[in-house]
Amino acid sequence: MNEKKFEVHPRAKNMAAALLSYRPDFTDLIPSIFPEAKFHFHRHPNGAFYHGVIIDEKTGVIRKVFRGTDGDNVIGKAQAWLANINIITGADGIVNGCQNIVEDFIKRYGCYYSDAKQSIDIGHSQGTICSKIDTLFTAEQYSNIDVSIFETYADFPAGDERFLARVQIQEQAGRMFGTRYTVRGDPAGAKEMRNPHNPLLDGEDIGVKGDIPDVLGPHATSLLGLFAHSPRAFCFAKMWEEIRKKEIGDTVDIEYLQSLSWILWRCKN
Question: Average of pLDDT values for 36-58?
Answer without folding.
Answer: 87
